[in-house]
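Wed. Picked up where I left off yesterday with Putative transcriptional regulator. The coffee machine is broken again, so keeping this brief.
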Amino acid sequence: MTDDPDVSGRIERPLDLWRLQQFVTTARAPSITAAAGELFISQQALSAALRGLERDLGVDLFDRGRRGTRLTPAGRELLASAPALLSAVRTAARSTRQAAVEPRPPFVVGHTPAIPSSEVFDLVRPLLVEDADLAITVRAVFPTAIGSALFDGEIDLALRRGITTPADLATSIVAYHPLRVAVAATHPLADRSSVSTTELAPHPLIVWAPQHHSAYTDYLVAHCRRSGFEPELITNRMQGTAPLTAPLVYPEGYAFVTDDPGPAHHRTVRILDLDDPPMAPVQAVWAPHTVHPVRTRLLEIHPPPNPGASSSTPPPTPTAG
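Structure written out below (tokens, as returned):
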């Protein structure tokens, strides 16, 4: 295997991955002393390794001054891309080991509380039908933990109500579901089968995170504004459960959900249709520069549902083995 030439025609030597990990650890640590302790090496050895990485790249990564060590613009650029590269290497090593294991380890799908487990099942069920030997594990994950869970190999794919694309992750829209409204069985609207969004104006909207802290909350607020009112927001103090349970904590309010209409949760909740529902996206998220044949097949089965919802990274082609 030959190395790729750079723009000047030189043959670039591949980066030393251990030095790259040392750089990331140092860049994130409060001091080089703390980084050396975390890496179980001496501060002198770490400093020498970082200098070696700078020589390999031909740039200064740190500004070493009297007041401490700070990242240079080149260092900040490397820190932005290095975690994804290191994650890809760990993924390749893990998948290589797993290829020698029988039975195959399960494909792990994480989903945020906004995605009901029934929707996850509908998305992955074709994979189980196609491959009788495939095992899939589904687990809940909070939106803020998606990146670390993917990079650390705890999950292979995440599903969320994605509105924006994270800068360090790859994404694709795999489904859209109509929004509906969940209210407590005691709510004034509970005896209705459907409502208009404007009829919700007198009641508070229950969300999982405050406005401007969650892109999905902002999306829901924007829908209310398009319907002519500014919603009163309540941030649910019960985190991690299905959104349809929120009205049981706040019976005066309502929550936007995608569950099927009708009674729910032991008939204590009513799911109502919206007269003109917006479509809520389901976004698949994964670590870039990684390949997993199960993920690739899932994205083939569920391509972006319309031309306006395109993948930020083309689904990779599985390699042999």
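Quick read: The CA atoms of residues 24 and 79 lie 6 Å apart.
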